[in-house]
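Section 3.1: Structural characterization of target chains.
Under the original work plan, the team committed to producing a structural model for every single-chain target entering the pipeline before any wet-lab resources were allocated. The record below documents one such target. The sequence was received from the expression subgroup and is listed exactly as submitted; it comprises 354 residues.
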Amino acid sequence: MNVRAVQTAREAAAGLFTVGPAAGHTRHALRVAAGLAIPGSALLALGRTDLLIFAMFGSFVGMYGRDGSRRERGRHQRSAALLIGGGVGVGVWLAAAGVEPLVLIVVESGFAAAASLLADHRGILPGGPFYAIFALGAIAWTPADAAKPLPALAVFTVTAALCMALAALDIESADAAAAPAPPGLHVGARHATRYAVAVSGAGLAGLGLGVGHANWAMVSAAVPLAALDAGAHFSRGLHRVAGTFLGLGLTAILLVPGPRPVLTGALVLALLFPTELYMARNYALALGFFTPLIMLMTSLSVPTSPERLLFDRGIDTVLGVAIGVLVATAHQHLRWQTPGIAPHRPQTRCRRDP
């Protein structure tokens, strides 16, 4: 086995057991959690657990612009609201239209490429189109009668606006380094192509294998593409798989007993805080909380047997990550073969942090 590959694998495995410092993360996580807890509690009180998924995607806007001034934070979050809102809007339209799975894959792949270009152009942090792709797929694959455009978009918009308001009220800011300059058009086009190839490949593979919830495979395929440096895509993928299976264990404990919808919704609200608390400190650990959050949310939107959900999530994650790593590796190999672009030493830096 290649010595470099062995070293990369060891570094990735070691990273699974490394948790970054907590400084500044608790305040940010509390703000993000409050952005979901406030509208989410209102929806639970009204008995509208079916709309909780749209509040969840609205709350993801609060994850952006973690560091820097309030002005910079606001800029990142406005861009994120545009991207994720686009995913929600397209997803609602696709669900209401009841289009075939193959059409969903084509549309989601094209959207992933377009969202990647926009994310690169706007220079948002965390970067990339992950949450926008996630929103489109999760909503588009729901039954046609589960997504009503007006209430869905209204809940998303109100939640996103609340999150931006909470961020603006938070006077504390970090002395963060300046965000990297947006990549040139040719680099952005390469990023977009990677997303289109990986997302479509994962969707078609999931559809061909007959595994349910192929959108999970598509989202998982986007995760390794967050890596900028050689070898980092493998580390990201490893964290995704390990964290997902850790989360599946917690999901089984929470979901198999069959909790009532109100209790399930309350658990969703509670799980967002630890997810964001560890997202930038240990991705695998964050996924240990994020996975049950998504699984519980899915059970509210599309009631399915817990055993089937657990199986589909595990298979789709492994399938999607494998395809994402293959696409990222092939992309790096092609870059290194391009005249004037020299290969560089493997690192684990990652600009995109889904």
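DSSP finds 13 helices and no strands in the chain.
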